[in-house]
């Protein structure tokens, strides 16, 4: 079944399918991590139904180009662009990011974002559904493929922002540097203060100098179990304005 929801009252509307492209916390958290400014040219690798792009555009006036392999996801992303009047600033290129040179020009973007598959092939239970298997495991592309594509797409000094599992942090840092995307910022996500991190947000800069800033953790719940003010802002529960982010 197909659904559509608003990001916030009066905000952009996104589309998804039950069991295939459901919205995830990871996309919301990643959308609040980049340092955005008006006019940025953004590429979303493995863009799915376009949710991450819409979240970024809800926060700032910019343009987003998605790259997505699965045609059903491309269709939903195109529906979202049309429904929100964003066809001039939001587009999705069908194709395999491993062949990025055939899809988009080099150095054309200021920011690349991606919610990559977290698990190597053969790790954990394997979904029989192609869409979920591709989203969960590195069956269609690896972390190295993503870093390689980001390095090609970014202008000198541009940034890539990713969300991943903490247990893959060493792989992530090494691969970013290997592709001349110097790690500059990282932030762990914790369910509650003092809990083991469940996710890590990281920014790499093309051609950046060495020097990594570890930011305070992003805490999702208060001691009483209620969402923190920052999580409320990430989900636009208080306002659609980006200025409300701590």
Task: Tell me what you see in this structure.
With 246 residues, the chain is α/β, with parallel strands linked by helices. It has helices at 25-31, 51-59, 71-83, 130-136, 143-153, 169-178, 229-234, and strands at residues 2-6, 13-17, 41-45, 63-68, 90-94, 109-114, 154-164, 181-192, 199-206, 213-214, 218-221. Strands 3, 4, 5, 6, 7, 8, 9, 10 and 11 form a 9-stranded mixed beta sheet that branches. Strands 1-2 form a two-stranded antiparallel sheet. Strand 8 (181-192) and strand 9 form a beta hairpin. Helix 1 runs parallel beside helix 2. The chain is globular. The N and C termini lie far apart (36 Å). The relative contact order is 0.14. The mean pLDDT is 91.
Fraction in helix: 25-40%
Residue ranges: pLDDT <50 for 5 or more in a row? none
The quaternary organization reads as single chain
End-to-end gap: 36 Å
Shape: globular
Strand fraction: 25-35%
Mean pLDDT: 91
Number of strands: 11
Keywords:
246 residues; alpha/beta; 7 helices; 26% helix; globular
């Amino acid at each position: 079944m197909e659904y559509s929801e608003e990001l916030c009252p009066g905000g952009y509307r996104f589309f998804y399918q039950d069991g295939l492209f459901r919205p995830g916390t990871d996309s919301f958290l990643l959308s609040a991590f980049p340092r955005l400014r008006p006019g940025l040219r953004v590429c979303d690798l493995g863009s799915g139904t376009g949710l991450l792009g819409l979240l970024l555009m809800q926060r700032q006036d910019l343009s987003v180009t998605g790259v997505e392999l699965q045609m059903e996801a491309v269709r939903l992303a195109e529906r979202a662009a049309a429904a929100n009047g964003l066809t001039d600033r939001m587009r999705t290129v069908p194709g395999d990011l491993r062949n990025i040179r055939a899809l988009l020009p080099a150095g054309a973007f200021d920011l690349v974002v991606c919610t990559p598959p977290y698990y190597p092939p053969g790790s954990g239970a394997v979904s029989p559904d192609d869409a979920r298997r591709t989203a969960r495991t590195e069956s269609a592309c690896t972390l190295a493929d993503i870093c390689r594509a980001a390095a090609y797409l970014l202008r000198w000094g541009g940034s890539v922002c990713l969300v991943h599992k903490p247990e893959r942090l060493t792989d992530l840092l090494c691969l970013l540097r290997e592709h001349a995307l110097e790690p500059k910022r990282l932030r762990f996500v914790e369910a509650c203060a003092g809990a083991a991190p469940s996710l890590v947000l990281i920014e790499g800069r093309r051609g950046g100098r060495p020097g990594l800033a570890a930011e305070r953790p992003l805490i999702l719940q208060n001691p009483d179990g209620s969402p923190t003010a920052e999580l409320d802002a990430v989900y636009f529960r208080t306002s659609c304005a980006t200025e409300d982010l701590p």
